[in-house]
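Continuing the batch. This is chain 6 of the set; chains 1 through 5 are on the previous pages. Same settings as before, nothing changed between runs. Recording input and output for traceability.
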Amino acid sequence: MDKGAEYKYGQKDKSYEEQMEVLDNQIARVQGKLDSLLRQKDEVIARKQEQELKELYQLLQEHNLTIREASHIIDAQAGQST
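Output for chain 6:
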């Protein structure tokens, strides 16, 4: 590391071990935030899936369809588009 880089990071007088410890602490904080954001994303995905399943169930009920019947309709439609 050149002297300019040392001053840039404000670590001129710190030992390599101290610099690594500071960086490890910063990484741990960022990792904690990342983990929290990933959990939040998973929760949003789960709520979205739950809502979509409710909507699908309601649609099936409105049309008096079973899952098997809906599956057959979808398969037939997919077969026509190929």
